[in-house]
Amino acid sequence: MQRRTFVGVATAGLAVVAAPFLYHYLTPVPIEAGWSNPSSLSLICEPDTIRTLGEKYRLLHDEESSKRSLAAQLSTLPADEPGREEMIKADFREGRTVMVDGWILSLTEARQCAFASLQNA
Amino acid sequence: MHFDARKLPNNSIIDGDICIVGSGAAGISIALEWINTPYRVILLESGGFEYDDQVQDLYKGENTGQKYYPMKSNRLSYFGGTTNHWAGMCSPFDEQDFKKRDWVPHSGWPITRKDMDPFYARATKVLKLGPYDFNLEFWQKQVPNLNPFPLDDQVIWFKMWQNSPLSGWNGGLAKEYKDKILSAKNIHLYTYATMVDIKASDSVSQVTEVKVKNHAGKEHAVKAKQFILAGGAIQNARMLLAANSQAPEGLGNDNDVVGRYFMEHLEIHAAELWLLRPFPTDLFNWDKIWCEIAIREDVQARNKILNGTAGPDQLAYKKDSVPRMESYQEEDPRKSWDNMLKTWSVADSIAEKRKTGAISRAYFLQTRLEQAPNPDSRVFLGQEKDELGVPRANLNWALTDLDKRSVRRINEIIGEEVGKAGFGRIRLIEEFRDPNDMSWPKGTNGGWHHMGTTRMSDDPKTGVVDSNCKVHGISNLYVAGAACYPTAGAPNPTLTLVALSLRLSDYVKGRMKAAV
Question: In chain A, which residues have their Cβ closer than 8 Å to the Cβ of B362?
């Protein structure tokens, strides 16, 4: 194979392999408004505190430290607030809780805090 | 009738049928039961009717374990005893407090809550409480606005308390019962009569007399048919251990149990409860009634934790309060008391500036926990002697991992429940966040509740007294009060110790009648 042909084939192959990854990482993360708004927690914590909790959650859960990974986790969050609150209660009911900075939080709302902490990052 | 033992001729012989050593909650409760009976009751009090620092100094000793209140100031030594500082809080132990629990080493009483119920009912009268009913539903009919938090009743329940009007602020049991006792012809109260030794028969199977002394240099002997130690858990153990002229390890101590299993109630601000929205209730309003958040028995069993409750106090007011274990460290109990009250005032004034916003809906949860029975937690004799020649009592207060894990888990359970109900969120204080951290925060308070040093068991190898509070192996020596508790329950000890004292009193009466 001529050098020029090899380079062409290799480039095309690389493009085929890389395309899904590039698409994944270059496509903007779809954001739902509720993802960064733990509404119950907002009644007792200031926005700064929520972002701090989110940062601490991300430090504890390295695999959920990006917007994209958090978006994947939050993709099933209902669009309406009552639905989201019900999901959070279900977390508590079914033992999906996490302690962040001493707060006993539902996993969903902890991820909301984490998402909020990345919003202005 | 009252006698000042300092004014008696030296080496007097004081004769009676029953000798009660100590005039605190236990001693007074028993003495009242014997008024107008054909028996002469000798009631011995180490101090007088007012605080006397020279007498109080007899309590001095060392703390060698977990930080604790100074030995001199953690009890009071005058008529009325420590009820002179009593907060008046009363609630009975729960059924499970009397049971053997596999996950709580050394747990289990030889009697049940059902055995105690009639005496609890009588004790409520002695302490001038309302009816013997501690159910929320009953009190909701008496007091408006007692709304419980909307939590799952399969997990959480609300433990009611009643506040006795005979608290220390109101003069304790002393003020209420002094005249009654002094006017009773068959009750002979001797003040300034500090017991310094217990003498037994040659076979050490029967007490023959106790020796009393005072700072006036007088020494007397008290002879009686039955002797009841009612000096509190530290002093009772001290005196049994110090009575070692005939039994080298002390009276009732053939199995090295006397002084061991000292227990306190852990009272720790371990978590904050933040409500999402205002929730009007007077259930946690000290001025009206008191209630604490409790964990169901089966939930405790599943989680293998101790019995404990959480009492909500407004966070704004408690956030800056100095832990009692820090503010109550003066040897002089009057100074310690003043210091503690001052820190409360400072915290209150700070709170006035910050009680708006979400914090107005936030509570500090004080976990009130039974301490796990622990043989290494103990009262023992020191090398030094007090002014009357009795070895001083030292205390090694020792907590266990089960205690720490229980405080943490109780608050986690409450956190899960308030979240489940969509009612609020819990935040644990830093020292309770790491499940592997078994150290204790500086706010690890005790309630000045001394229990367990002469624990009750049917087996002399595991207890000092039997189920009737009689010392094993000694036919006429009894211990009254919280020293007899095998486990500590979560509530303050006074109601239970008065009930147990009334039960003991009935038993001794029965024996006296049978002997006639």
Answer: 44
- State the pLDDT at residue A7: 66
Residue B361's closest chain A neighbor by CA?
A44
ipTM (interface predicted TM): 0.91
Cβ–Cβ pairs < 8 A, chains A and B? 57
Tens of pLDDT, residues B221-233: 999 999 999 999 9
DSSP class of A63: G
Query: Which DSSP string do the residues of B329-373 spell out, in sequence order?
Result: --SSHHHHHHHHHHHHHHHHHHHHHH-SGGGGGEEEEEEEEEPPP
Nearest CA to B306 out of B490, B160, B491, B156 is that of B490
Residue closest to B236 by CA, chosen among B502, B509, B497: B497
Interface test with B, best of A85, A94, A104, A105 (most B CBs within 10 A): A104
| Residue of B241, B266, B234, B256 whose CA lies nearest to B452 | B234
pTM: 0.94
Tokens linked to B21:
């050593």
Q: Measure A82 CA to nearest chain B CA, in Å.
A: 11
List CB contacts of B299: < 8 A, sequence separation 6 or more: B155, B413
- Cβ neighbours for B515, distance < 8 A, ≥ 6 positions apart: B225
Cβ neighbours for A72, distance < 8 A, ≥ 6 positions apart: none
Q: How far is B414 from chain A (nearest CA, A)?
A: 10
